[in-house]
Amino acid sequence: MIFVPTAAVAFFGWFEEFGVSYKVQAYLIQVHFVLISLCILIIFKDRYDFIVVQNVKLHYKIIYYLANLIFGCLILLPSYIPNIDNDLEKSKIFEQYPFMPPRFFASQTHVVTDNPTLAVSLICFEILLIIVQMLYFTSYTIWFLREKSSHLSDETRKMQLHTIFSLILQTVVPILILGVPVILSGFFFFLESYAKVFDIATAAVILSHGFFSSICIIYIHRPYRRYTKNLILCGENRIGYTF
């Protein structure tokens, strides 16, 4: 639980019970975003290697992914290195924002950094760097399929393009939906202001993630689309089973 627009975070869970440092927990939360972005990058990079490059040695892939992971982990460290007096920082925050709820004063609440703007800027820079790579691999693959893929048949090119556009929709929709709270939190950090509507908007957006992802999957894949259409129109749905 983050007390926006401050860097105070309430930690609940096994790590807190086992006495893991709150700085380590906060750092792992940001690394988690890096790992999610890297997993999405791997999807499009593998498609690029398969269609464009075709023969890429495994150790080159491992080096490339490890370089992204190590850089992403190292760039987040500067905001967590300085030592912080937790009680002093919480008192400063309360003087500036006296509307803090009682949970802010709980022992599980810690101020993880004295420079939240730096922390948000670094994670946004790392995610932006991965997005730029994704855009390159995706756009070049689409261009290659449309212009230079003479070794592929028309049917194969059409199928590969459909696969890529499906991957784009299935990844962009969750990223946009889950990225809204991150963007809003960064916005409030830079403005050093707070609005109750942030909590409501964050909850509404996160709760709608599964719904919009399901709509996206139904729209992209023809069997799901056909089944849903027949279900709504009370038509006949035939389901085949494969063993």
UniProtKB/TrEMBL annotation:
SUPFAM superfamilies given for it?
Family A G protein-coupled receptor-like
Transmembrane stretches, start-end: 24-43, 63-81, 118-143, 164-191, 197-220
Q: Which InterPro entries match?
A: 7TM_GPCR_serpentine_rcpt_Srh
- Give start-end ranges for the coiled-coil region(s): none
Q: Mind listing the UniProt keywords for this protein, alphabetically?
A: Membrane, Transmembrane, Transmembrane helix
Name this polypeptide is given: Serpentine Receptor, class H
The protein's organism comes out as Caenorhabditis angaria
